[in-house]
Amino acid sequence: MTNFPIPDVDRVSAIIREVAESEILPYFRDLANAGIREKTGPADLVTLADEAGERALTPRLLDLLPGSTVVGEEAVSEDKSLLDRIHGDAPVWIIDPIDGTLNFANGRPLFAVIIALACRGETLAGWIYDPCDGRIATAVKGQGAYLNGKRVTVAPAVPLTEMTGALSTRFCAEDLGRQLDERGRSLGPRVCLSSAAQEYLRLLDGRAHFSMYHRLMPWDHAAGVLLHAEAGGYSALFDGSPYRPTVLNGGVMLTPDRASWEAMHRHLFG
């Protein structure tokens, strides 16, 4: 149990929409003014919109919950010690101002804002907002998952050969990546959108059955894993233990139910 009230879900949603409208969308498809630059390489980009969005979200979220703190992707890129806040006793807002920056920078409407609220290593609430089509997914732990205000459930379980979803091998070891790619061919169609947020939305609206990720940065997955669980899905780290936003290494796999997870794990990992 928390010793603080979870801020109103709709109020947080309104803040996210307002910031996306004022700080993010004006840069979309305006490459001359977006200030695109590399962080660690050509596939790891940041834009003025990422920075402006995080800068605007931070004080507004802090004002909603006195005593809280923030872990933002762009702030952490400048000061990695900020990640330690996730382990503390204070509630922490986890911010990804633009998940799918590569898509954003290339004018593809496959990006989203992700916000999670966590405390003592547990995700308590999550939001994913697609500024291009206006969809917003919300969840508070124990209260179900909602997409545009309507309660949602994950797609029903199907045989492995019919399961479609995202299987990311980008950050795993080369040998493991080859194994997963080879064994993944016998699954249903694989869809990689270069945005975990967009792939989580596909899980919530029933268009995908599974997602699998390596390199577990909390701004990419804390909200999505909670949303998926609140929609009735099952997820676990590759070793079978529960996902927590404090876990940064290894990988997580999400499926419709535990039986599907176990079958897919056996199929992919042997």
Automatic annotation (TrEMBL):
Keyword Manganese annotated: no
UniProt family annotation: Belongs to the inositol monophosphatase superfamily.
Transmembrane parts of this sequence: none
Annotated Pfam families: Inositol_P
GO BP: any one term: inositol metabolic process
Residues bound to Mg(2+) 1: E73, D96, I98, D99
InterPro entries assigned: Inositol_monoP_metal-BS, Inositol_monophosphatase-like
Keyword Translocase tagged: no
PANTHER family tied to this protein: INOSITOL MONOPHOSPHATASE, INOSITOL-1-MONOPHOSPHATASE-RELATED
Highest taxon of the lineage: Bacteria
Keywords noted in UniProt: Hydrolase, Magnesium, Metal-binding, Plasmid
Entry cofactors: Mg(2+)
Annotated signal sequence range: none
Molecular function GO labels: inositol monophosphate 1-phosphatase activity; metal ion binding
Protein's name in the database: Inositol monophosphatase
Binding site for Mg(2+) 2: D220
Enzyme Commission number, as recorded: 3.1.3.25
SUPFAM superfamilies, sorted: Carbohydrate phosphatase (SSF56655)
